[in-house]
Amino acid sequence: MKIFLDTANLEEIKTACEWGVVDGVTTNPTLLAREIERTGKKPKDILVEICEMVKGPVSAEVTALDAEGIYKEGKELASLSPYIAIKVPMTVEGLKATRKLREEGIMTNMTLVFSLNQAVLAAKVGSNFVSPFIGRLDDIGHRGMDLIRDIMQVYENYGFGTEVIVASVRHPEHVYQAALYGADIVTMPFRVFEKLVQHKLTDVGIERFLSDWERVKDKIK
Ligand code: G3P
To answer: What is the CATH number of domain 2-220?
Structure first.
């Protein structure tokens, strides 16, 4: 399972990359706006910096809504780095643009996906990635992870090559379930990423080993 960070925060990405377990990054206009406000940097410079740190797929989202506009914006973003994947909303215009971008070998990620049928359409136009938003489904009383289970099953039924990015992740339990369902990728905020490593028994274990070792330290000099 690949681990992506769902943030545009350069500090968080730098810290997480040092752990050696980050395979990619996903951004969206909200996350990028937050980083522009925090740093005063230009969006394109932020994206290039992220690509240089991550050296893996970095999703950059278009804001145009018509197919031609999405295609043009996508081409421009893709010229920033070979690591850029163009994030395109799941609409009719988005499908048309994704097909066109894929024909030119540009990486794409169809986003704002909330149903199995939408995920099938993303695979049909040859998108590299599809992003079902799990947390937002939970928020309205649906079972977000059931959608992941079903997409994984249907993609396997038909041998679709699109990779599933579990997105809108809220807590480590989403990551646990995504792994059980065999999701290709989970993208998560830094606060969830940090929690993956934590376990109080690990801390207690370290403390106990070190205090036992302390007792004999002088005897083994
Ligand atoms: O990757 C999708 C993500 O950015 C949306 O998450 O927390 O805004 O629902 P959230």
So the answer is: 3.20.20.70
Burial (CB count <10 Å: 0-12, 13-18, 19+), residue 180: exposed
Structural domain spans, the chain: 2-220
In sign, the C-alpha dihedral spanning 137, 21, 16, 34 is negative
Q: Is 171 in the pocket of ligand 1 (CB under 6 A)?
A: no
HSE, side-chain direction, 13 A CA sphere, residue 78: 19
The residue nearest atom 8 of ligand 1, judged by CA position, is 168
Q: Is 14 annotated as catalytic? A: no
Distance 28 CA to ligand 1 centre (A): 8
| pLDDT per residue rounded down to tens, the chain (221 residues) | 999 999 999 999 999 999 999 999 999 999 999 999 999 999 999 999 999 999 999 999 999 999 999 999 999 999 999 999 999 999 999 999 999 999 999 999 999 999 999 999 999 999 999 999 999 999 999 999 999 999 999 999 999 999 999 999 999 999 999 999 999 999 999 999 999 999 999 999 999 999 999 999 888 87
168 lines ligand 1 (CB under 6 A): yes
Rounded to the nearest angstrom, the distance between the alpha carbon of 131 and the centre of ligand 1 is 10
Query: With a 6 A CB cut-off, is 73 part of the ligand 1 pocket?
Result: no
